[in-house]
Amino acid sequence: MNEPAPSLINALSEAELAAIDAEIAHMPQRSGAAIDALKIVQEHRGWVSDASLAAIADHLHMSAAELDGIATFYNLIFRRPVGRKVILLCNSVSCWMLGSDCLTQQIRDRLQIDFGETSKDGEYTLLPVTCLGACDKAPVMLVGDDLHESVTEDRVRELFDQPGAPNG
Amino acid sequence: MDRPLTRNIHADRRPIDLRGYRDNGGYEGLRVGLGLSPADCLQRIKDSNLRGRGGAGFPTGLKWSFVPMGEDCSPGHKYLICNADEMEPGTFKDRLLLECDPHQLIEGMILAAYTIGADVAYIFIRSEYHIAAQRLREGIVDCEREGLLGDNIQGSGYSLHMHVHASAGRYICGEETALISSLEGKRANPRAKPPFPQVSGLWGRPTIVNNVETLSNIAHIIERGPQWFNDLGLTEDAGTKMYGVSGRVKNPGCWELPMGTPIRTVLEEYAGGMADGYELRGFLPGGGSTDFLTADHLDLAMDYDTIGKAGSRLGTGTLIVLDDATCPVGFVKNLMDFFAQESCGFCTPCRDGLPWSAQVLDDIENGQGKPEDLDTLERQVEFIGAIGNTHCALAPGAMEPLQSALKYFRADFEAHINQGCCPWKARQ
Ligand SMILES: Cc1cc2nc3c(=O)[nH]c(=O)nc-3n(C[C@H](O)[C@H](O)[C@H](O)COP(=O)(O)O)c2cc1C
Ligand code: SF4
Ligand code: FES
Question: What is the CATH number of the domain that holds B104?
Answer without folding.
Answer: 3.40.50.11540
